[in-house]
């Protein structure tokens, strides 16, 4: 089933690229395996998937160590607290949700040298979602400049998680604003000789990957369409989930 689902997601990505006149090789698929076990990752791996996204540090590290497969690429896409930076710097290849300098500094200091630089994106709060993580757009350049100077990180780009909306034109508009910020920051950084590997716009999930690709996403993070519905609410605290 995961095999079929992956094929349909790849077909959706290909169709979206065609509609946007983009080369499909410019959009990577990150399979978001949060809440699913290592068996699901193994199934996706058998179907050719290599990059996996996890939200929760403990759960992610458990899968990374259980699978112990250096051909897999692990991305932390959930929020990160400073007391967990070390274990993340030691186990993950990418971190998408950096939104404070302090977190970036700790990740850089704690990155094991033999693993090479940790790949990071800055999470930007594009639609001013009240409870949401992410740097405000007008503070993104200053943060990007500081993060780009850290020795053991490679700053790759931006990540966004817009509020879900049923209004397709609003959805596209927010994605387009994120893309515009991505381009502006990239130009400024480049002009200063910073962030030479700035190339990643992590944007789009199961529900909005088409509009994200139309707006210029280079990496879509897809969970539900690959692994099925998650067994429990995600992104809310355990107590909030149990009363929901
Ligand atoms: C869960 C999650 C996804 C995947 O969402 P789906 O709607 O299941 O595709 C993508 N990005 C982040 C940050 C997530 O937490």
Blueprint (SSEs and pairs):
Layout: H1 2-19, E1 28-32, H2 38-46, E2 51-54, H3 57-67, E3 73-76, H4 85-91, E4 94-98, H5 101-110, E5 118-123, H6 140-148, E6 153-159, H7 168-191, E7 200-202, H8 209-215, E8 219-222, H9 224-227, H10 238-243
Parallel strand pairs: 1-2, 1-8, 2-3, 3-4, 4-5, 5-6, 6-7
Helix pairs in contact: 1-8, 4-5, 7-8
The structure holds pyridoxal-5'-phosphate (PLP).
The site of pyridoxal-5'-phosphate has 15 residues, from strand 8.
Q: How many strands in all?
A: 8
Shape: globular
Oligomer status = single chain
Average pLDDT for all residues: 94
Largest sheet, strands/sense/barrel:
8 strands, parallel
Main-sheet strand order equals 7-6-5-4-3-2-1-8
What percentage of the residues does DSSP assign to strands (E)?
Answer: 15-25%
């Amino acid at each position: 089933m995961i095999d079929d689902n992956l094929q349909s997601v790849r077909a959706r990505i290909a169709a979206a690229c065609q509609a946007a006149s983009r080369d499909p090789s410019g959009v990577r698929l990150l399979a978001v395996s949060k809440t699913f076990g290592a068996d699901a990752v193994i199934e996706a791996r058998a179907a050719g998937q290599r990059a996996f996204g996890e939200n929760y540090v403990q759960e992610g590290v458990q899968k990374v160590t259980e699978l112990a497969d250096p051909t897999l690429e692990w991305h932390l896409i959930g929020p990160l607290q400073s007391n967990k930076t070390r274990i993340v710097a030691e186990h993950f290849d990418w971190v998408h949700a950096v939104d404070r300098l302090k977190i970036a500094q700790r990740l850089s200091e704690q990155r094991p040298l033999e693993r090479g630089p940790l790949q990071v994106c800055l999470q930007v709060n594009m639609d001013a979602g009240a409870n949401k993580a992410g740097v405000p757009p007008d503070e993104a350049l200053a943060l990007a400049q500081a993060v780009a100077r850290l020795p053991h990180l490679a700053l790759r780009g931006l990540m966004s998680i817009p509020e879900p909306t049923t209004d397709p034109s609003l959805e596209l508009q927010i994605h387009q604003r994120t893309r515009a910020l991505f381009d502006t920051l990239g130009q400024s950084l480049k002009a200063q000789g910073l962030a030479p590997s700035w190339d990643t716009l992590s944007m789009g999930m199961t529900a909005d990957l088409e509009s994200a690709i139309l707006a210029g996403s280079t990496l879509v993070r897809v969970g539900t369409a690959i692994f099925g519905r998650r067994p429990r609410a995600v992104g809310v605290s355990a107590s909030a989930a149990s009363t929901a």
